[in-house]
Amino acid sequence: MYLSREEEEICRGDHGPTLQKMMNILVALGEIYGAERLVPVRSAQIAGVSFKNIGDAGLQWISDLNGRVRVPSILNPSGMDLCRWKEMGITEEFAYKQQATIDAYRKLGITPDCTCTPYQLYDSLASRGDHLAWSESSAVSYANSVIGAMTNREGGPSALAAALIGKTPKYGYHLDENRMPTHLVEIKDELAGADYGAVGFLVGRIVKDGVPIFHLRSRPKSDELKALGASMAASGSVALYYVENVTPPAPPGAEPEEKITIDRSDVDDVYKNYSGRDADIIALGCPHCSMQELEQIAKLLEGETVKKELWVCTARKIAESCPELVAKIEASGARVFCDTCMVVSPACERYKKMMVNSGKALIYIPGLCGIQAGFGTLKECIDVALGRL
Ligand code: F3S
Fold it and tell me: What is the pTM of this model?
């Protein structure tokens, strides 16, 4: 791999051991994947934040680093609401180590907003054509597909390395030749809301790491695109997709060789096969809720009282920007938790079954939280929480 003089100096350790370690990560990755050089990134989004996932060894590794990030950098959700962790049932010991993890990242100059939807908080992190080093799979999908930026699905250490060096190896989705559609997905019927998560659940399993291009009958809103991409990234490992006449277009050239057709009955089967009516907790906000989603939830809960635990996950900045919506949701007995989510927090493990309106959470909950998961529309989830279903 070609390295500039400064990059070589960093590799040799002339700029200190932290940057040397970070550059070695980037060079090793670049050599494995055949990158010709490094490319500057506009921002980094760093996974490996929840203490549930990184443990003591991860915390030690991050704490041992010295330096400042060279590009705006933001964190993935942590294992708890950083203010209301006691209400989540988080132990003192976990809270102490989680806070120490956030502090270690903060010391490196990383913005301690813990969210998988950084694009809902800041326009400045990514624009069309920018190279990025983002690691959360749904954020990667949104950045590549909806924003039209270019990022691989980084691991926590490689995103952190890119943040501290300001560059990432140029391979994979940083190159147009790897951004060509591989599958044409024809959706026969109109979709709305959680249907997009259900479609993503089905399509990801078929296309795996391919690049689907959708021909849709309905025009998805940004929250629906967010749900579609998150779900495909979890059921397969889709990091880029196109929706005709909606997302930035594919580079000109190759036509997809495979064709998939999905109709209403396929989508309905997902709801039927994964009923959540017997759930003891309902969790919304995977990926983190936007303000529009908080509005929908507040409307459905207006004047009602929940009979089951209902959690709504969002970014702290989003919650702080609409305190009246948060108050309306919480007046029902539901709780709006920030900085965390139902998957990366250990708090959900004490329940038996979680109902979600997210295809991604449906896939991850059993494996990562060890409890059952059910799936429904937003309205069904709320009705189950209210004891109506
Ligand atoms: Fe975000 Fe957690 Fe879902 S990180 S995408 S809310 S699993």
Answer: 0.98
Measure the CA–CA gap between 35 and 366, rounded to whole angstroms.
36
Provide the 8-state DSSP code for 183: E
Ligand 1 atom showing the smallest separation from residue 116 Cα: 1
Distance 29 CA to ligand 1 centre (A): 25
Element spanning 44, H or E: strand 44-46
State both tokens at 18: 């932290």
Q: How far apart are CA 357 and CA 130, in angstroms?
A: 31
Work out the percent of the chain whose per-residue pLDDT is above 70. 100
| Phi, psi for 353 (deg, rounded to 5) | -145, 135
**Ligand 1 pocket member 343 (CB < 6 A):** yes
Please list the alpha-helical segments (H only) found in the chain: 5-12, 17-33, 51-63, 92-107, 137-142, 156-165, 195-207, 222-235, 264-273, 291-301, 316-321, 323-331, 359-369, 378-385
Domains and CATH numbers, the chain: 5-176 (3.30.499), 180-270 (3.40.1060.10), 274-385 (3.30.499.10)
Atom 4 of ligand 1 has which residue's CA nearest to it?
Answer: 116
Contact 358, 230 (CB under 8 A): yes
CB-CB contact of 194 with 221 (8 Å): no
Query: Is residue 360 lining ligand 1, measured as CB closer than 6 Å?
Result: yes
Percent of the chain with pLDDT over 90: 99
* Residue 322 CB burial class (10 angstroms; 0-12, 13-18, ≥19): middle
CA 312 to CA 296: how far, in whole Å? 12
Per-residue pLDDT band at 253 (split at 50, 70, 90): confident
Structure tokens at 17: 């051991």
Task: Calculate the dihedral angle through the C-alpha atoms of 234, 238, 243, 247, rounding to the nearest 10 degrees.
Answer: 100
